[in-house]
Amino acid sequence: MKEEKELNDDLKQLLDALEEHGRNTRRQAQLSDLIDQLATQEKTVEMPHKHRKLAPLWWAMGAAAACLLLWLLVKPTTKQTPEMEEKNLVEVEKVEVTEPIMTEENNVVIEEPVVKEELLTEEMPAVPKKTPTKVEKPRMKIIEEKPEEPVLAEVNLTEPVKPTDTENIESNTTPTENETPVAVQKPQRRVIRSLNLVCYECQKDPEHEVKPKPNVDNRTLFGQPQDPNMKNGSLAFEFKLN
Amino acid sequence: MTIEEFKRDILRLQPLMQRTAEHIIGNPDSAEDAVQETVIALWEQRATIKESKDLERLSLTIVKRRSIDQLRKQKPTVSIDAESLMLTEAQQDDLEERYQLARQLVDHLPKRQRDAILMKYEDGLSNEEIEKATGMSRTHLYATLSRAYTSLRNAIEQHKKELP
Predict the structure, then answer these.
(1) Chain B residues with CB inside 8 Å of A6's CB?
(2) Do A31 and B14 touch (CB under 8 A)?
(3) Lower CB density within 10 Å: C or N end of chain A?
(4) Given 1.10.10.10, 3.40.50.2300, 2.20.25.90, 2.130.10.10, which CATH number is that of B89-162?
(5) Which helix (H) or strand (E) is A103 found in, with range?
C-alpha cells in the first residue's frame, strides 16, 4: 500500500512536471505574441524614450536645411522684370541748393553754391543694382606759380554776412561745371593762401608802396585769368578788393 | 539588443520567471500576469539592456517585485520577506530534472499512450478534446490512459532500481 502510494506520488510529480512544461510552453507562445505586438505598436505608434525626444528636433533641422538649400538654389536665378527694376531703383535726383552756404574764416566770408544729392525715395532695391555713377576724381588743377601780384591783405567788408547754415562744406559740396574745382574742394587752402599774400616787390624792396589795381574782375584771387564761361563763379569771390 | 534577441532571451527565461512568480504568489494565473507585466517592463527598458546577463538579472528583480505587488493586493496585511520567497537554484534544477525524466519515460511508451499522455498533460487538452483529436471513444481513451499510467509506474520503479 505504501509502495503504491509512493509510486503514485512519483507518477504524480512526473505528470505535474509534464503539465507545467506544457503550460510554460503555452505561456512562452503568449509572451512571444506579446513581444510581437509590442514591436508592432512601437513601429506604428510610439518610439523608445531616446528617439522620442530627438525626433522633432531632426524634423526641424531637416526642414530648415531644406529651406536654406531651396533659397540658395532659387536666389541667383531670379530675374527681375524691368518694371520691378524701375520700381526698386533708388531715385536720386540732383537738386541745386539755392541758398548759398556761407563760411567765415579769418574775416573772409565765402559764399559757395552747393549741390546736394537728395534721396527722394528710400526704397532700396532687393538686389542692389550697380548704377553707372561716375565718380569723378577732384581734378587737381595745377596752379602755375607766378609771382603774385600785389594784393591788399586787408579786406574791408561793408556788411558782415552771417552764416545761414553751419553745414560742413567739404562733406556736402561737389564740384559743378560752374565752379573751379580748386576753389570748391580746398577752400581752406585758398584762404590760407589769400592770407599769405605778400607782395613780391615788397619782399625785395621794403619801401615799395602797394597800389591797388582798379580793376581785378577778370582775374581770380590768385591772379589767374578768370574763365570767360564762368558767370556765376564769381559768387565765391564776391568780396571786392580795394 | 534586437527584437529577435530579446524574444529569444525572454522565452528562455520564461519558466524561471513563472516559477519564481508562482512560488511567491502561489497562484499560477496571477503569476502569469506578473510575468507578462515583467515582460512589458523589460520591453520598455530594452534600450538600456546590453547583455543577456543583464536581462536575466533585471527580469528576476522585476518579476519578484511584481509578484510581491500581486501578493499584496491579495493579502495586504501579511508581511513579506522577498528573499525567502525566491526560488533556490536547487529547486529550479529539480524542476528541470523532473521534466527531463518525465519526457524520457513518456517517450518510451507506445505511440497511442504517449500521444494521450502528452495531449492531456503537456498540451493541457481536456478528455473531450483528445477524443476529438485522436478519434478515440471515451472508454478507449480511459483504457489507454490507464495502460500508460501502469507503464510509467513500472518505468519509474525500474529507474529507481538503476539509481545507485
Answers:
(1) none
(2) yes
(3) N
(4) 1.10.10.10
(5) strand A101-105
